[in-house]
Amino acid sequence: MDSSRTPESVVDHTPPPAELPDRDSSTHRRPTPRWLAPLALFIDVALVIGFVAVGQREHDSAAGLLGLLATAAPFVIALLLTTAATGGLSLRHRSWTRIWPHGVIVWAGTLALGMSLRVILGLGGAPLAFIIVAAASLALVLLGRRLITAWMTR
């Protein structure tokens, strides 16, 4: 028997793995649909409004939809400004999925600027207990959304 030939049972006839057409080979991530970043921002806005709604319900301050939107406005404005400042709608850099530093900046900016606007606009004060609860709640929803989004889009 010729020793230079490999027995047929040892030869691997499987073709090499092909590139998956839906993955970017440089990052091993699927291409990001254009609508995903605006959807993430919409979800953030909805979560911030939900945070305000829970607060109003806990304090029996049912002011209707307009009251809810007026109370949420400082935090929504702060969220939009800090999201824009961190490039939150960029599909290329995917900052809307990152907890550090983008998510932390958006969270801290939403909290600080939202509280400041709340006081400046005469919508209420900013007692320490409220700041602590708002900080924890906003961290949970804004950073939690980024954690889930990063996991889902990897």
Automatic annotation (TrEMBL):
<dbReference type="InterPro" id="IPR021414">
    <property type="entry name" value="DUF3054"/>
</dbReference>
<keyword id="KW-0472">Membrane</keyword>
<feature type="transmembrane region" description="Helical">
    <location>
        <begin position="62"/>
        <end position="87"/>
    </location>
</feature>
<keyword id="KW-1133">Transmembrane helix</keyword>
<dbReference type="Pfam" id="PF11255">
    <property type="entry name" value="DUF3054"/>
</dbReference>
<feature type="region of interest" description="Disordered">
    <location>
        <begin position="1"/>
        <end position="30"/>
    </location>
</feature>
<protein>
    <recommendedName>
        <fullName>DUF3054 domain-containing protein</fullName>
    </recommendedName>
</protein>
<feature type="transmembrane region" description="Helical">
    <location>
        <begin position="99"/>
        <end position="121"/>
    </location>
</feature>
<keyword id="KW-0812">Transmembrane</keyword>
<feature type="transmembrane region" description="Helical">
    <location>
        <begin position="35"/>
        <end position="56"/>
    </location>
</feature>
<feature type="transmembrane region" description="Helical">
    <location>
        <begin position="127"/>
        <end position="148"/>
    </location>
</feature>
